[in-house]
Structure formats: structure tokens, C-alpha cells
Design goal:
heterodimer, A: mainly beta, 7-stranded mixed sheet, 4-stranded antiparallel sheet, B: 4-stranded antiparallel sheet, 53% strand
Chain lengths: 116, 111
């Protein structure tokens, strides 16, 4: 099976612009989660989508949004970029067990966003 | 509230020495526990997981971890470290609403 893919891998934007990142999960995985990773902060949970519905959301401002398509591919969008948004954005996909609890998450290589 | 603590921000070991990375969690129910490794510029790779059963779990690359409910810990171990093990290691709890990650432990391996 192909792994989780993220595009683009690298992105440079200026303050005030907006950006859209894309994630294609492993085939058959219906859950897609997004994380922001910065030095010293570890992985901060942004949101999780399952079957096109946002089920969970982390503590990020409304400038961060996402969506999931019927084929489980997901996009996240950041509007009005700030310098502090510079980070590695990771996407992860997973299956859920019958009990509704998560199996392991499989991560993509990430998109490195630099805001200047 | 759920949380994961990795008390060691950075650890340095000599090649061939043993390794233990600490992880403590706070979670109200039986946790699903994971260890991931991240090499520079890469995404996270799953090393091992604990769902239930035997509290000593084996993973890839010679790693193992032991779940201790009484101590709320899930420490990662390796008997003999290789230079290629230098990376960032993350412990995580999988809950119903999301995964909770620790802030990571950076491992340096001295030749």
C-alpha cells in the first residue's frame, strides 16, 4: 500500500497570504488528522476528519481550517498567515477499531511552511 | 485531562550502550500507547504500540517498551544503541477524540 502523501513538501509564503496543504491518506483509512510541529512545542493537534466530518479540533484560531473529501483526501487551509505559522505540518491517517478507539496513526512526510 | 510527559528533552548515549526513554501519561481509561520515531526532515514512524495484553511489547529496530499501569508509564528501551538510532522520539496516547503526544526526546548517539 502507498503511504500517506503530502503536497507540497516545501512552501514559502509572506505574511497575510493564505495557503492550502493537501494530504492523501493510506487507501482504506477514513480518519485524517493534522498536526503542527514546531521546535520545543512538539506536535500540536489541529483537527481530525472522519468520513468528511470534522470530529475534533485543537486549540487553534479560526484562521486554520480544513476539509475532507469523499475519497478521504484532506486539505487544510491557513488564512492571513503570520510569522508564527512557520512550522512543519504533518498529516496522519488511521483506521478505527470496532470499539471506536484509534489504531496507530501513519504519518506523511510533512509540509514545511515558511512565512516571511 | 489527558496528557503525555517525556521528562527528558535530550539524551546522549554511546553507541552500543543501553537506552531507556521515559514516558508518563495521564488518562482516565485504559490507554492505547504508542512510540514514534522521527528522523530529521521526516514524518513520524511507528516503533511499537500497546493496546492490551502482555505489558512488554516488542517493536521494530530492536526496541521494546513496558506498560506499567501503577506508574502510568510506558518507557522505551533498547539494549544496544546504533548510530542510526539518533532521532527524535515521541510517546503518544490514543484516545477517543484524538492522539496526545509528548514533546519528544532528542537522542544523540556518540560513536
Amino acid at each position: 500500500k502507498a503511504g500517506v502523501t503530502q503536497t507540497p513538501r516545501y512552501l514559502i509564503k509572506t505574511r497575510g497570504q493564505q495557503v492550502t496543504l493537501s494530504c492523501s491518506p493510506i487507501s482504506g483509512h477514513r480518519s485524517v488528522s493534522w498536526y503542527q510541529q514546531t521546535p520545543g512545542q512538539g506536535l500540536q493537534f489541529l483537527f481530525e476528519y472522519f468520513s468528511e466530518t470534522q470530529r475534533n479540533k485543537g486549540n487553534f484560531p479560526g484562521r486554520f481550517s480544513g476539509r475532507q473529501f469523499s475519497n478521504s483526501r484532506s486539505e487544510m487551509n491557513v488564512s492571513t498567515l503570520e510569522l508564527g505559522d512557520s512550522a512543519l505540518y504533518l498529516c496522519a491517517s488511521s483506521q478505527f477499531s470496532l470499539a471506536g478507539l484509534p489504531n496507530e496513526q501513519y504519518f506523511g512526510p510533512g509540509t514545511r511552511l515558511t512565512v516571511t | 485531562a489527558q496528557s503525555v510527559t517525556q521528562p527528558d528533552i535530550h539524551i546522549t548515549v554511546s553507541e552500543g550502550a543501553s537506552l531507556e526513554l521515559r514516558c508518563n501519561y495521564s488518562y482516565g481509561a485504559t490507554p492505547y500507547l504508542f512510540w514514534y520515531v522521527q528522523s530529521p526532515g521526516q514524518g513520524l514512524q511507528l516503533l511499537l504500540k500497546y493496546f492490551s495484553g502482555d505489558t512488554l511489547v516488542q517493536g521494530i529496530k530492536g526496541f521494546e517498551a513496558e506498560f506499567k499501569r501503577s506508574q502510568s508509564s510506558f518507557n522505551l528501551r533498547k539494549p544496544s544503541v546504533h548510530w542510526s538510532d539518533a532521532a527524535e522520539y515521541f510517546c503518544a496516547v490514543g484516545a477517543q477524540d484524538q492522539f496526545y503526544f509528548g514533546t519528544g526526546t532528542s537522542l544523540t548517539v556518540i560513536p
